[in-house]
TrEMBL record:
<dbReference type="InterPro" id="IPR029039">
    <property type="entry name" value="Flavoprotein-like_sf"/>
</dbReference>
<dbReference type="GO" id="GO:0009055">
    <property type="term" value="F:electron transfer activity"/>
</dbReference>
<dbReference type="Pfam" id="PF19583">
    <property type="entry name" value="ODP"/>
</dbReference>
<dbReference type="GO" id="GO:0010181">
    <property type="term" value="F:FMN binding"/>
</dbReference>
<dbReference type="InterPro" id="IPR036866">
    <property type="entry name" value="RibonucZ/Hydroxyglut_hydro"/>
</dbReference>
<feature type="domain" description="Flavodoxin-like">
    <location>
        <begin position="273"/>
        <end position="410"/>
    </location>
</feature>
<dbReference type="GO" id="GO:0046872">
    <property type="term" value="F:metal ion binding"/>
</dbReference>
<dbReference type="InterPro" id="IPR001279">
    <property type="entry name" value="Metallo-B-lactamas"/>
</dbReference>
<protein>
    <submittedName>
        <fullName>Flavoprotein</fullName>
    </submittedName>
</protein>
<dbReference type="InterPro" id="IPR008254">
    <property type="entry name" value="Flavodoxin/NO_synth"/>
</dbReference>
<dbReference type="InterPro" id="IPR045761">
    <property type="entry name" value="ODP_dom"/>
</dbReference>
<dbReference type="InterPro" id="IPR016440">
    <property type="entry name" value="Rubredoxin-O_OxRdtase"/>
</dbReference>
<dbReference type="GO" id="GO:0016491">
    <property type="term" value="F:oxidoreductase activity"/>
</dbReference>
C-alpha cells in the first residue's frame, strides 16, 4: 500500500461537512496494484436506518480499479461525501475519463452518488444486473442510454484486469451482487462481510473486528442466512486473497471473516442463553435474575440485557449464535411493556437460529403480556419451553417454578 499525501488546509469551521470539503489531504490505500480505496469514513455517525446504533461510526467504501485500457469505479458513497469521492478519484486517475460505474447494491449509502459520478464522467457506462437497474431506478435518476446490464458470470475487460460479476441476491436487498477481480483475487462484496466502524483500513488493525462484524451480521444479514450460505458456496473456490466490503476494514486475511460467516449462515448455535427483559418495579427482574443464576449453575453461557439501557446492536450480535432466548416482559395496560414489545418484534424480524424460548413476566391487576408474546413468537421456529406470569412480586414458590423452568431449558439446550 502506498499513501498519497498532498498539503492540506484545515479551516476552523463548526460544520463537519464544510470541514470535510476543505480537506486537501486524503489517505487512499492501494489495496492491490492499481486498485484504490476511494470511499469515505463517517467517524461521527451514530445511527443507521434510524434504527441501528453505530458506536464507532462507519465507512462507505468505494473502489477504483485501473486497467491498462479502462478504469472502473465500484460503488459510490453516502449522501454528503460526493466531493470527497471526486477528489480522491482525481488524485489517482481522471474522473472525466472514467469508463464504468459498477453498482453492487442500490441502497443510497453506496449508490447515492451515481448521478453525481455519471454527470462528472460523461462517457462512463452504469453497470449492474437487471434487478439492480430496477432497484436503482426507485432511488436514483439513471440515463437510459448509458445502462449496461450484466448477469452471473459476465465480465468486463479493463486491460490486464477483469471484473467478473457474481449475482448474490438478498444480501440484504433483492439486487445485491459481488464483483470479482481474478488477476488480484479481490472480492468486492458490498454489504456482505461488512462491519460498521470507521476505525482502521485493514482487518489486522482491529482486534475486535469479528465481534463488530458479528453485530453487523446480526443486524443486517441474519434474516437472509440461507442466501448468505448460497453466496459462500458460489465463492468458495475462487481463492480469494482480499475481501473489500463496503463498510469497515478490508480483509487481507479472508479466512478471518469467511470462517465465522460459514458458521453464522449455517445457524450454528452455542450453549448460550440471551436474556432480554424490562422491569418496572423489580418483580420481573427478580424472576430474570433467578433464571440467569439457574442457567449459569447448569453450565449455560448467559448474556443479559435490560432493554431500557441496551444497545440493540449488542442484542443482535448475541442473537447470531444463542441457542435460547429468555424474554422478561411485564404487563402494561393489558399488553407487553412497549420496550419488551419492541425487543420481541426485533427478535422475530431478525429470524435468529435460537431453538428454545422462555417468557417470564409480572402484572398488577390484569395480565396480557404473556399472551401477546406467545402470539408474536408463534410463527417463529422457537420452541417455548416454559412461561410464567406472576401477580405482584413472585413468591418463593413461584421463584422455585422459575428455577425448574431454567433447569428444563438448560437440559433441552444440551441435547
Ligand atoms: Fe450499506 Fe445495504 O447498504
Amino acid at each position: 500500500m502506498y499513501r498519497i499525501l498532498v498539503h492540506f488546509i484545515l479551516r476552523v469551521n463548526d460544520s463537519e461537512e464544510s470541514w470535510r470539503k476543505s480537506m486537501e489531504i486524503y489517505n487512499i490505500p492501494e489495496i492491490a496494484r492499481n486498485v484504490f480505496g476511494v470511499g469515505s469514513k463517517d467517524w461521527n455517525r451514530r445511527i443507521f436506518d434510524s434504527l441501528i446504533p453505530l458506536p464507532e461510526g462507519t465507512s462507505y467504501n468505494s473502489y477504483l480499479v485501473k486497467g491498462e485500457k479502462k478504469t472502473a469505479l465500484i460503488d459510490t458513497v453516502n449522501p454528503g461525501f460526493e466531493e470527497e469521492l471526486e477528489a480522491k478519484i482525481n488524485m489517482v486517475s481522471d474522473l472525466k475519463k472514467l469508463d464504468y460505474l459498477i453498482m453492487n447494491h442500490a441502497e443510497p449509502d453506496h449508490a447515492n452518488a451515481i448521478r453525481f459520478i455519471l454527470e462528472k464522467a460523461p462517457e462512463a457506462l452504469f453497470v449492474t444486473t437487471k434487478k439492480g437497474v430496477k432497484m436503482a431506478k426507485l432511488y436514483h435518476e439513471l440515463p437510459e442510454a448509458r445502462i449496461k446490464i450484466v448477469a452471473e458470470g459476465d465480465s468486463l475487460d479493463l486491460g490486464g484486469k477483469t471484473l467478473r460479476f457474481i449475482e448474490a441476491p438478498w444480501l440484504h436487498w433483492p439486487e445485491t451482487m459481488f464483483t470479482y477481480l481474478p488477476e488480484d483475487k479481490v472480492l468486492f462484496s458490498c454489504d456482505f462481510f461488512g462491519a460498521h466502524t470507521a476505525q482502521g483500513v485493514y482487518d489486522e488493525e482491529i482486534e475486535e473486528l469479528v465481534s463488530l462484524a458479528k453485530r453487523y451480521y446480526g443486524e443486517i444479514m441474519m434474516p437472509f442466512g440461507k442466501m448468505g450460505a448460497r453466496a459462500l458456496e458460489k465463492i468458495k473456490d475462487l481463492g480469494i486473497e482480499i475481501i473489500a466490503p463496503s463498510h469497515g476494514p478490508i480483509y487481507k486475511n479472508p479466512k478471518r471473516i469467511l470462517d465465522p460467516y460459514e458458521k453464522w449462515t449455517q445457524g450454528k448455535t452455542e450453549n448460550k442463553a440471551l436474556i432480554v427483559y424490562v422491569s418496572m418495579w423489580g418483580s420481573t427482574r427478580e424472576m430474570i435474575r433467578t433464571i440467569a443464576e439457574t442457567l449459569l449453575k447448569e453450565g449455560v453461557d448467559v448474556r443479559m440485557y435490560d432493554l431500557v439501557a441496551s444497545d440493540i446492536g449488542d442484542v443482535a450480535r448475541e442473537l447470531v449464535d444463542s441457542r435460547s432466548i429468555v424474554l422478561g416482559a411485564p404487563t402494561v395496560l393489558g399488553g407487553m411493556h412497549p420496550l419488551a414489545l419492541y425487543g420481541t418484534y426485533l427478535v422475530k424480524a431478525l429470524n435468529p437460529p435460537a431453538k428454545y424460548g422462555v417468557v417470564l413476566g409480572s402484572f398488577g391487576w390484569g395480565g396480557g403480556a404473556l399472551k401477546q408474546a406467545g402470539e408474536l413468537l408463534a410463527p417463529s421456529k422457537i420452541e417455548i419451553v416454559g412461561t410464567l406470569q406472576v401477580q405482584g412480586r413472585a413468591s418463593r414458590e413461584k421463584l422455585k417454578k422459575v428455577e425448574e423452568i431454567g433447569r428444563e431449558l438448560a437440559r433441552k439446550m444440551k441435547t
